[in-house]
Design the sequence.
């Protein structure tokens, strides 16, 4: 490989314009692509900004009773939340041999002649490496982030709490919190399979389990929605139900890898990453914490807030030779998660 990796790395690290371009490229990949499939990304949030959902007024129109007509008083009810973005720090460290190997593999995977890789390729590789490393963290925080996770004894490895307590509440903890509010409790359904004593029992679902659950999520729905976001386990159960019950002429669609389903006119969107993390980080003593979930709402009601203006503005690249001989990539961004209108959803977990 003719390219001098250390020299190319140092040139990017010492060039303000290249650092800025790298930062913007990483943000575009991270904030607006992968996570954007499941959530709405809202840039420019500030701590203390209100997020308000108001109950609509009604029963304000009646027959005119003439001069004696009296007006009724009304209270404005709703739920108010605050954006509380947390500074999330990113730190990547790779030794020289690991970095070289990763660059070579990246080049081969993208169809490049590894003997002709140049500075532009190296720039793209760093962008990929950073965004790819951060992407899993970003989605994990949006799903499971919980400032109090260390005290709950639900992680297989307690030392991983520092990778989950970055934001106050991600999607699942937010749903759990809303379930404690009296006026919202009818919006939640208990998935009894989650309480089974072993993972084997948790994952053994009747063939029509997901179908019946999705029906509950869409019954008596009085809000606008466009997706049912679900664990891959429930998605697969519903897919198997269709395979076993649908007409023979339609089964080929599923057998050929059909990966886009709908239920009652709404998109079914599975998050495989949810199930992967539940298995890896939330399974202990033969049991998984909340392996199944589903939420019926509008995608715009699931919001990841980022301080887009200040995100990754201090992105730093550094190579230290000698006995250390490591590449370092560091940066930070501010992030939070909110469900602006908890009245416009039905969820199960």
Sequence:
């Amino acid at each position: 490989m003719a390219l001098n990796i250390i020299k190319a790395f140092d040139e990017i690290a010492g060039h303000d314009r290249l650092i800025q371009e790298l930062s913007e490229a990483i943000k575009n990949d991270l904030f607006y692509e992968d996570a954007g499939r499941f959530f709405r990304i809202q840039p420019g949030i500030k701590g203390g900004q209100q997020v308000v959902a108001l109950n609509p007024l009604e029963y304000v129109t009646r027959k005119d009773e003439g001069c004696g007509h009296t007006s009724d008083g009304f209270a404005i009810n709703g739920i108010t939340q605050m954006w509380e973005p947390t500074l999330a720090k990113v730190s990547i460290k790779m030794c020289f041999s690991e970095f070289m190997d990763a660059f070579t593999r990246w080049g081969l995977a993208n169809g490049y002649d590894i003997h002709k890789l140049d500075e532009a390729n190296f720039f793209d590789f760093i962008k990929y490496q950073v965004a790819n490393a951060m992407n899993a963290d970003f989605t994990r925080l949006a799903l499971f982030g919980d400032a109090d996770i260390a005290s709950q004894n639900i992680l297989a490895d307690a030392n991983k709490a520092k990778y989950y307590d970055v934001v106050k509440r991600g999607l699942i903890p937010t749903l759990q919190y809303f379930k404690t509010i009296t006026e919202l409790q009818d919006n939640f359904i208990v998935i009894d399979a989650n309480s089974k004593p072993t993972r084997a029992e948790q994952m053994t679902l009747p063939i029509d389990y997901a179908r019946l659950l999705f029906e509950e999520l869409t019954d008596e729905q009085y809000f606008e929605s466009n997706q049912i976001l679900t664990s891959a386990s429930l998605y697969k159960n519903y897919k198997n139900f269709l395979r076993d019950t649908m007409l023979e002429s339609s089964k080929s669609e599923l057998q050929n890898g059909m990966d886009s389903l709908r239920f009652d006119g709404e998109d079914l969107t599975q998050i495989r990453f949810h199930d992967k993390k539940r298995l890896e980080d939330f399974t202990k003593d033969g049991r998984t914490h909340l392996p199944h979930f589903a939420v019926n709402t509008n995608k715009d009601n699931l919001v990841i807030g980022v301080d887009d203006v200040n995100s990754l503005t201090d992105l730093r690249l550094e190579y230290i030779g000698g006995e250390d001989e490591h590449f370092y990539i560091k940066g930070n961004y501010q992030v939070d998660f909110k469900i602006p209108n908890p009245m416009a959803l039905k969820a199960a977990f």
